[in-house]
Amino acid sequence: MHEHLPPLRAHAGRSAVASLVAAAACWGLGTVASKQIVDDVAPLILLPVQLTASCLLLLLITLIRRESFSWTPSTRRLAALGILNPGAAYALGLIGLTTITASMSVLLWALEPVVILLLAALVLHERIPATLAGLVAVAITGVLLVVYEPGAAGNTVGITLTLVSIGFCALYTVLTRRLMLDDSSLAVVLAQQAAALGFAVLLAAVVQLARGTGWALGDLGPRTWLAAAASGVLYYGLGFWFFLSGLRQVPASYAGAFLPLIPVFGVAAGFLTGERLEPRQWIGALLIVAGITAVAVRLRGPASTPHAVTR
């Protein structure tokens, strides 16, 4: 059936926008932080370390806020989605990245908001306004201007794995929006991250048994471990918490429209560390900000009603 979402109140609209922008910031900055250590830490080690740090942070916040947490049927269903993302999605993405260039990877990931729009329409039966689709197209154009570099290439296997990973992430967004009713965002993200951690540990154990390299720790110093944990807290803990906090207040199609902000925060972090942007990158960043600002205005205005979600 179709559930028509009520008009967003001004406070709810501002809260959703703030949460989704904060999520994009965490993911953009977290990506930059992860790039600093990915050469020192094997992906199958990095993911469990990051998720462990994330789970510890979320558990600490849960205890401080004295939020109740119980494995209800609803929580178990939502937790299972953590195996999908960040579990399987990031595992496939990391494997795919070994056979395609970084430029090709970021170009492919620009498709995620489009996939979310399509799945939101097909699975949730959300009505996608032409204006929203147009604004997402503007933002994606900006992403391409920001991240494109000549020489983007990759083999078929790597591209396929990356596309499957993108599909998993988009499906995660849509299904979480469908299942998330009155559940606490903090409880949901903690359950999902715990499930993802279990998957990551199991995957590393399987690779260890099969190839003897799953737990190849190498010579990692305290600073590397600390950097890995910090990037996990930023990218997985805070990033997913903010995203789910915004997602529970708005349709999935609108939540996905904020994802093009991720490379803006990424290049901003690079700029602060001494990297310089080309003119086309400045233009791209302006297009992204303009497009997402227009989406935010729609969310805060009275015209943010015409969406429907299937339950």
TrEMBL record:
Annotated compartments: Cell membrane
Coiled coil residues, start to end: none
Membrane spanning stretches: 44-66, 78-100, 106-124, 131-148, 154-175, 187-210, 225-244, 256-274, 280-299
Bilayer disposition of the protein: Multi-pass membrane protein
GO cellular component: plasma membrane
Protein name: EamA domain-containing protein
Domain EamA: start-end pairs: 16-147, 157-295
Subcellular location, principal: membrane
Keywords annotated in UniProt: Cell membrane, Membrane, Transmembrane, Transmembrane helix
Family of the protein in this entry: Belongs to the EamA transporter family.
Domain of life per record: Bacteria
